[in-house]
Structures are given as C-alpha cells and as structure tokens.
Design a protein that fits this description.
single chain; 15% strand; Butyryl-CoA Dehydrogenase, subunit A, domain 3; Butyryl-CoA Dehydrogenase, subunit A, domain 2; alpha+beta; 10 helices; 8-stranded mixed sheet; 3 domains; 49% helix; Butyryl-Coa Dehydrogenase, subunit A, domain 1
Length: 379
C-alpha cells in the first residue's frame, strides 16, 4: 500500500449543516422543476458555489474532506428538500468518492482528476445506468486511441456536466472487453438528447447522451475488463456508490414522514390513522437501519463479492422500506396527500426511482444466493 501524501489539512466543512441552510432555497423551486420537466441546474449551481461538488475530495487536495458517511448524510439531508437535486448530486458525488477512496491507497493514479474537480469546478456525470457489467457503446481502435459510438441513458446531470465517466466495448481476440474512460461532454461528436420525460425525479436531467465517433486517447483508458464479469473496480463502485445513492431515498422517506405527520394532525384522530402512522414509523426505521448497515459495510470491508452482496441486499431493503414509508405517509395524510401543493405526491413519484438502479431485486437475489452457496458469482 502506497503511503498517502501529506499536506496541511484544511478545516473540516459540515456539509450536512450547510444542506439545511440552503435546503429551503432548493425546495422553493422543486415543484416548478418537476412540473416543467426542468433541470435542477440552478439548485446545483447554488450547491457548487458552497463547495458541495468538492465535498468528497480529500482536504489535502483542497476539497471538503468529508468522509463517506458524511457524504451520505449530506445527500440524505438535501433529499428532504428536493429529491431531484439530491439524486443528481449523488451521481457526481459517488464518482468523486471512488477516486478519493483510491487516493488513500494509490494516489498517483487519481490525484490529477481530484485536483481538477477542485480547480476547474468539474461536474462528473455517470453512465452507470447504461453500462454496469456488460458496458455499452462500441470502441473502434484508431491511431493513438479509440473512436466511441453509441448511446447512453440515465446520464443524470448531463445538461451541466463536464466529464462523462463511462464505458465502451472493444472487440478483442479474448472476447468483448469493457474500457472505462472519461469523455468531455463538450467534445466533438457528443450530443445531449432531450429525452428525460419520466414519472418521477424529473429534475435530474438524466437525458440520453449520443456519442458519434468521439475520440478518446489510449492514455485516458483507466480500466480494461472482460464484459459481463465482476471485476475489482465494479466491487469498489458497489461498495461506495450505492450507500450514497440510497441515502437519497431515505431522505425522501423522512421528508414524506414529516409531511404526513403535519397533515395527520389536521385530521380527526382515529385508531386507524394511528395504526398507519405506526406502520410508517416502522418502515422508516427499517430504511434507516438498512442504510446504516450499508455505510458500516463501506467503512469496514474491502471490495469483493461478500461486501458487494451485503451492499446490494441493503440497496433492496432501503428501496423497499423507503417506498413503503411513502405509501404509508400518503395513507396517513388522507385526501390532502393527493394534492400537489402538499409535496407528498411528488415524493411518492420520486421514490419509485429506487426500483431501477442496479442491481435490481431479482439480480440482487441471485447474487446473494450464489455468495451464500459459495458459487462463482460470474456463473
């Protein structure tokens, strides 16, 4: 293990407290973004001005120096004010958290990117929803690098993004090989397509990105791996990214619970309403406990099949419990919860997105089974 560089540590920034400070400003525009399928770019600019985009960069490199758990609490708090803003930021934040984790081990491989995030105020965009183990888009070898062509989906934050952290598939004699590489979103051949018309999380700007022969130099390729197979880098992403993403859904559940309690007070009290509120509290506790276990796993475990399975089990449990919490909140609120003005209806739609991140429930259950049985997870 390489010893990390030493430098004077910057003062620690409490981004959870800052999230509460700026939260009302974010919330004030949330309904408008949702109603108009608008991108939460203004909210993200507010956050960037306060340093949220560098929260995960080590303090020694000029960033906020937040721990992984602190990043989760930051995103969870932001979600209580605007789910789309929090989810869009989580996609950038987990792309920062992975190289920050690596910097503690092999700093020379990632220090340049982390410094650029601070100095150039970069926003990273993930294409993980398009790629996962198989990868997507085609890489064709050319002199000095590759030409990348294809289409990515679920590229949250794309309208204001700077670097697309993505993958492409290269045909080799050994079989399809996935290349991990960054693509500047303003590069020739990159086009953001206005496709994001969805049930919920409407403000995330998760548009399709079309790549038409985009040149990527050979030196920019960070990882090469067999398509469709688990690789250490994918275990690292699983360990670090999903507790941050699913912290957003816990925050949404907490916001729904608070709104439901306010609305329930205005209703005539009854044993039935009290029962529903008790069920809501129980589901929220389950979501919080599952997130706590995900964060504990990320803090204590090294990347690998066992840790990935535990993280993905947590992903399923958080998602289920968050959705059920919001369902119970709608029930506890009564008819008032059906009106847009209460904000519960939007949270109900936004929380449904918890279903769609990898690994979705069936794939997660198969992984859990193979790990439990001691089988090859690539089988």
């Amino acid at each position: 293990m390489t010893k990390q560089p030493t430098a004077p540590a910057a003062s620690h920034v409490d981004f959870e407290r800052l999230a509460h400070e700026v939260g009302p400003q974010l919330a004030a525009r949330a309904a408008e973004f949702d109603a108009e399928d608008g991108f939460v770019g203004e909210n993200l600019e507010v956050l960037k001005a306060r340093g949220f985009h560098t929260a995960g960069v080590p303090a020694e490199l000029g960033g906020g120096g937040s721990s992984h758990a602190e990043l989760a609490h930051m995103l969870r708090t932001l979600a209580r004010y605007c789910g789309s803003t929090a989810l869009a930021l989580s996609m950038h934040t987990h792309q920062v958290a992975v190289p920050a984790w690596r910097w503690r081990r092999t700093p020379e491989a990632v220090e340049g990117l982390l410094k650029r995030i601070v100095a150039e105020k970069l926003t990273l965009v993930s294409s993980g929803g398009s790629d996962w183990l198989d990868g997507s888009c085609k890489a064709v070898p050319v002199e000095g690098g590759f030409r990348i062509s294809g289409r990515k989906v679920f590229a949250s934050g794309a309208p204001d993004g700077d670097l697309l952290m993505t993958m492409a598939v290269l045909d080799t004699p050994e079989g399809p090989t996935v290349l991990h590489l960054p693509i500047p979103l303003k590069a020739d051949g990159v086009r953001i397509l206005d496709t994001w018309r969805t049930l919920g999380m409407r403000g995330t700007g998760s548009h399709d990105v079309e790549l038409d022969g985009v040149f990527v130099p050979e030196a920019a390729v960070a990882v090469r791996r067999a398509a469709g197979k688990w690789h250490p880098v994918m275990h690292t992403v699983s360990l670090l990214a999903f507790p941050l993403i699913y912290a957003v859904y816990v925050g949404l559940a907490e916001a729904a619970r608070d709104k439901a309690l306010d609305l329930a007070v205005a209703r005539k009290s009854s044993p039935d309403v009290e029962l529903v509120i008790g069920e809501m509290e129980t589901e929220l506790a389950a979501a919080r406990l599952a997130l706590t276990d995900m964060l504990a796993t990320a803090a204590a475990e090294e990347p690998g099949p066992i840790a990935t399975s535990r993280i993905m089990i947590g992903r399923t449990l958080v998602g289920r419990a968050a959705i059920r919490t919001v369902e119970k909140a709608m029930e506890a609120a009564g008819g008032a919860g059906f009106y847009r003005k209460t904000g519960l209806e939007r949270i109900f739609r936004d929380v449904q997105a918890a279903r769609y991140h990898p690994l979705q429930e069936k794939a997660q259950s198969r992984l859990a089974a193979r790990v439990a049985l001691g089988l090859d997870i690539d089988g």
